[in-house]
TrEMBL record:
It is found in: Cell membrane; Membrane. It is a multi-pass membrane protein. Keywords: Cell membrane, Membrane, Protein transport, Translocation, Transmembrane, Transmembrane helix, Transport. This is Sec-independent protein translocase protein TatC. Part of the twin-arginine translocation (Tat) system that transports large folded proteins containing a characteristic twin-arginine motif in their signal peptide across membranes.
Length: 246
């Protein structure tokens, strides 16, 4: 394929992703109300009354739910389209092993969603409400502010849980390798710790509870990259022995 044919193929894949994202948002709008009712029945919001401070707050809440639900649906499709785009450059075994990343994209996103909702979000909410109580402030929450606060924590962490799969996929394509990842370790640690500080309350315990799992994710990514890389080197060695001898 020529360069323009590659660009045309990439454009076609991106259009597919956008169409599925739009379809996912339509589905998200349909199931937003049950999801909203479920979250409103859970701690810490089940004993609170949320308010609308503008006419757009209700619509904004529905759109936030639709976006999160659409991401859950579209992430495996994004990985599939990425696989389909690079498929012609992969061997048969590489195609099959790379295709296995697709279902794990959804699994890792859901694990990240559960971790951020059940661990990080309660810590952040407890910290902010304790500060408000210390300042003798009367807490009045808007529906937009509450769910924006929640999703600003949930989405970044959930997407970061895709890191091992992304790094394994890029290693399969020989764009990354464990040596390069180890050289980037200090920069990666700094970025992950910075993310943990930004999305959590400003105390050492909360920052550590988020930053440490993110760092472990990076180290797991390096380990998985090493496994993929060793297999690549072994296949290259076998190829050289087979064809080099001839």
């Amino acid at each position: 394929m020529t360069l323009f044919e590659h660009i045309g193929e990439l454009r076609r894949r991106l259009i597919y992703i956008i169409l599925v994202l739009v379809l996912g948002m339509i589905i998200g709008l349909l199931v937003a109300n049950p999801a909203y009712d479920y979250l409103m029945s859970q701690e810490p919001v089940n004993g609170m009354t949320l308010h609308a401070f503008s006419l757009w707050d209700g619509i904004g809440m529905y759109m936030k739910f639709a976006l999160v639900i659409a991401l859950v649906l579209v992430l495996p499709f994004i990985f599939y389209q990425a696989w389909a785009f690079v498929k012609p450059a992969l061997g048969i075994k590489e195609q099959k092993s790379a295709l296995m990343f697709v279902p794990f994209a959804l699994i890792m996103f859901l694990i990240g969603l559960a971790f951020s909702y059940f661990v990080v979000f309660p810590m952040a909410f407890t910290f902010t409400t304790s500060v408000a109580e210390h300042l003798n402030l009367e807490e009045t929450y808007g529906v937009t502010q509450y769910f924006a606060f929640m999703f600003n924590i949930l989405l970044p962490i959930s997407l970061l849980f895709e890191l091992p799969l992304v790094i394994m996929f890029l290693t399969k394509l020989r764009i990354l390798n464990p040596k390069r990842l180890r050289k980037m370790r200090r920069l990666a640690y700094f970025i992950l710790i910075l993310i943990g500080i930004i999305i959590t309350p400003p105390d050492f315990i909360s920052d550590s509870l988020v930053a440490i799992p993110l760092i472990l994710l990076y180290e797991a990514s390096v380990l998985l990259s090493s496994v993929v890389y060793r297999k690549q080197l072994e296949r290259d060695r076998q190829w050289e022995e087979e064809f080099g001898a001839t």
